[in-house]
Structures
1.
Amino acid sequence: MNLNIALLPGDGIGPEVLAQAVKCLEAVEETFNHSFSYKEASVGAIAINRKGAPLPQSTLALCKEADAVLLGAIGDSKSDNNPDAKLRPKEGLLMLRKELGLFANIRPVKVFPSLIKNSPLKKEIIEGTNFTIYRELTGGIYFGKKSLNEEGTIASDLCEYSETEISRIAHLAFKAAKNRNKKLTLVDKANVLESSRLWRKVVTQIGESYPDVTLEFLFVDNAAMQIILNPSQFDVILTENMFGDIISDEGSVIGGSIGLLASASVGDENAMFGPIHGSYHQAKGKDIANPIASILSAAMLLEHFGLFEEAMAVREAVDKSLKKGIMTPDLDSNSQYGTNQVGDFIAENIVESDDFNMNDENIDLGKSTII
Ligand code: IPM
Ligand code: MN
């Protein structure tokens, strides 16, 4: 398959982790005979520095032309935490989502058996956790009308949703649930918010066309508790923009590191893939950032184009690196491995997956040829 991929390395650790995902995609090209082409553009703080805008026109044009976008990370601590900043790097991400019509953000939360000890939660609680969050991404309070009075003393952000905005992502979430464990949980605040009551109405109605999917409702405050108390009860969670932002960070804690969580943002015409974490400036250039979220985002990209075997090869290579302890210091404080080495190991295992599987059998038999 030929694919044109737009690369947006962005800020902080973004370029470092993205480079590892590209290594893995190149390994997939080589192993499975595909041809991917890569074109790079700037977004976020680096784009403000270079071009005076967080999302330059040329970057947007490149993304629109591409089959898919692969994103590193966006943000810089100075302007992110300064309420008076004129140009905000993260605006670049919000504009990208809106301009590309990426209304559904898909964030899988899974516990890797080899990392169970990394979780701050007890083993009995987190075992078997495997759910996916469908977060609405182009509406709600993020994009509603904003206002600030002249004195600068009263501010508001409007949370608005239309039936159309709710139903298009609800269909995607129901379809996903149908192919998984057939349970969909709508997370809302329908006891207080009018917009949440519309979500319930629309989602309930759509649910009638998916009779084999069980639909449940959970208020967001209760959901925040349930995700920690009993995460394995969830299969697909559907929710609006802001609640999805919050509970996906919460979900990332279950697996032991936010550096493991990948995401896909999809719309009718475009798709973008990238880690859920931020730009983590403190780690920039230190070769310590975890590249796995970025690499797993590349796996989601492959799945998006129906390249399931290829995505599986990437996932298996990631599993292998974790099993063998080839991981960055966020997962093992004594680790000697850096971002680059972890990326190299995973990419090499994609290329040599067959040989390595054979060798693993030998390891089990005590006849390994490499140890
Ligand atoms: C995320 C991020 C973004 C969001 C920020 C960077 C605007 O936290 O993708 O979860 O809030 O959506
Ligand atoms: Mn977030």
Note: The longest helix spans residues 14-32.
2.
Amino acid sequence: MCGIVGYIGNSQAAPIILDGLSKLEYRGYDSAGMAVFDGEKINIRKSVGRLKVLENLTHGGENMPGLCGIGHTRWATHGAPSDTNAHPHFNAEETIVVVHNGIIENYIQLRDKLISRGYKFVSETDTEVLAHLLDYYYKGNPLEAVTKVLHRVEGSYALGIVFADCPDQIFAARKDSPLIVGQNEDGCFIASDVPAILKYTRKVYYVDNYEVVRLRADHMHFYTVDEEEIKKEPVTIEWDANAAEKAGYEHFMLKEMYEQPKTVSDTLTPRVKGNDIVIEELNMTDEELKSISKIHIVACGSAYHAGMTGKYVMEGLARIPVEVDLASEFRYRDPILEKGSMVVVISQSGETADTLAALREAKAGGCKVLGIVNVVGSSIAREADNVMYTWAGPEIAVATTKAYSAQLIAMYLLAMKLGKVRGVISDETFAELLGDLKRLPDQIELLLNNKLKIQKFANRYIGAKDVFFIGRGIDYAISLEGSLKLKEISYIHSEAYAAGELKHGTISLIEDGTLVAAVSTQPALYAKTISNMVEVKARGAFVLAVTCEGNTEIEKAADYVIYIPETNPYFANSLAIIPLQLFGYYVAVGKGCDVDKPRNLAKSVTVE
Ligand code: F6R
């Protein structure tokens, strides 16, 4: 989604803004722009397309001199990607300039009012109302104008604003869209995410909802929307800037896939104490854990797929009923949240608008919410009652891999903890499960090192039209994620089906040579899935099977088999997903797709 970077200080702003925006490219965008105050007036350059276009247009920022500026990468919501719709947006006199991430929901009413007062609009964006509304309220006091505007707008926003009258200041404000500010001895920064400014400072402040920041070259002041000054504590970012670089890999996605053994280990190890699992972040006694009568897992996309696996594992190991919902559905379906229910929201970014809204819905319904979140300090992390972090580090590729793997570990840990305190799992079984969990990082590494086999296979399917993924139980959850990985980065149509469901309609799509990837990691269901493989093979499908070592029986029904090492069936997802991620990746690379930044997608989906 849109990215914002701003700088005010003693250095040239434009190169810093371009550099920061390049670190936000992973969020997804279709145009980029920048506004810099040159000592007399504000200049804007913007263009549809990649940031490279803006870099060329401005000679790397050289032909936009000035010490104060704001920049933006836009992911179109209102109005198509175009030079005119790209941010920043000016008022008519070109004395106030705005960049915005989010959606102004009442922009039509505001626009109509402004038009009736003589304001003229040049773009189709919701953002432009902010520039004109600021103009309307600006009577010499910029803070007052900003807060008045915030009282009028509904929706979500992270804002960067510059007034030509006050070029020694940048204003920033936030509601429901991520925004941080930071400072070093040279100047102050605003950004949508930490990687944009990590090169310049590790000391950042997370701007909260309805907060306004006034940044000057040497200090920042924080205010409420009622202009009352507030004190905030900085957070020191511990992770390394290199973590957000490619480190020699062709793509972030490949690098992140290779980081999975570490991610899994980092998420697991701090919570394994001797022979036990201790999840301090739950802040719940064993008695409280025992009294949970139902769990709702709510998430979007891949995080939802991790939640689906969580359902099978929690119901199996802890015998607690689990409902899994897409956050965009949960928030509007008036869910029945009984006393004793716990709500678990899963999100890599911690900013997904639907997941955040679902969290609020659950809290309003009287439930305690546990957030399983990757980005420290994100909105979901701050609003959840308790947070269990997945220690995956920054994930830059739009398609998630390592954060998903970490989410699976969080699911297993919760399931085992609940299973133990509720007396469902014996000490002996618990110890065996723990042993299997600890082996996962090495087993994932092994699968990654055998990538050649899947790479060769993937090359054959670069021209595929449709690919189907099938599996039962946990294998269905794995299929959903495998299918999403393939389609989102390679643009090949793909669907995942519960293996037994295919014959209820979809099997009519199977033609000679259609690739069907059958995931079969659950010994109790081997025979059933083999029957479904035979059904599609009989109709001409080419069957790729992903199964566990030892299940050689499958070779009778499959055309190509990928074996995963032996583990407890509840943890098989963590292994089976690796060849499927690699498959999606190599098909996309073979097709020449922009693997890290697939078209139309955004890393952090901060709008509904
Ligand atoms: C797919 C992918 C998305 C996200 C989804 C939720 O590869 O990354 O489906 O999983 O947008 O995002 P978070 O986890 O940030 O809430």
Note: The chain has three domains: 3-237, 247-448, 450-594.
3.
Amino acid sequence: MKENNSLVTIANLSREDIMHLLHQAEKFEREPNRTILSDKVVATLFFEPSTRTRLSFETAANRLGARVIGFTDPKVTSSTKGETLKDTIMMVSNYADVIVMRHYLEGAARYAAEISPVPVINAGDGANQHPTQTLLDLYSIYKTQGTLDNLHIYLVGDLKYGRTVHSLIMAMRHFNPTFHFIAPKELAMPEEYKIYCQNRNIPFVEEEEFNADIIANADILYMTRVQRERFTDLMEYERVKDVYILKASMLKDAKPTMKVLHPLPRVNEIAYDVDDDPHAYYFQQARNGLYARQAIICNTLGITV
Ligand code: CP
């Protein structure tokens, strides 16, 4: 946690920071209901739609005794009258102890953290970063694999616009991963993240094929949704939206310990028959978000349990 104790990017967190947060999340999972924030107000400002991130943050705050204010639709705020993001943040910081913000513009969270008198938690900024999703992803990987070290992590689908995979790559730099980037050319991992891996000697393989043989060596199969809202050309979206669909039959040769993760929401990329397969872990992963976000809120406020 840096910049006014804000959480803007996962890149700022050391291995020790990450492990501390995961151990805090373990404690919250054992005991999620604690009135340790009864004098705190948490603001949730969502300029973009959300189900899990907003509701798990609000549940996290409520289970810790905090009060929650905020909005789920900027159309009901004075931003429609021309109020700037700066003025909105300055106003909300008069009322709340911490601001959780999702915004459609890349860099909006960093800007908010720079000007805000209270800490800002980035709940997703455009196609850039989603650090709290990454922490719950790391918690899910840690719980299911018993370690974060030396894992083969397969990232599948929209690697161009998927902010969760970008944040996950950065976080895993501390843990000696091997990545497989499985995407069609149109949605390939951006050069900047491949350079990021090369500069840190993180091995990665790029593939376009997606089948049972390709994924047989995976420890984690991280599926992603093709992000319709980021396309300027909807014809291109139509061309690639169903390019990879994971079916239960494709998991027959998977390692017994392998888990399928997905930040959700899913559209077509995981068939419903996978839900009953023991490798499926995406609903538990979303539940882990509650505990990870309890840890993040407390850490941002300087509270350790
Ligand atoms: N994973 C995730 O960010 O989900 P929501 O968009 O529903 O918050």
Note: DSSP finds ten helices and nine strands in the chain.
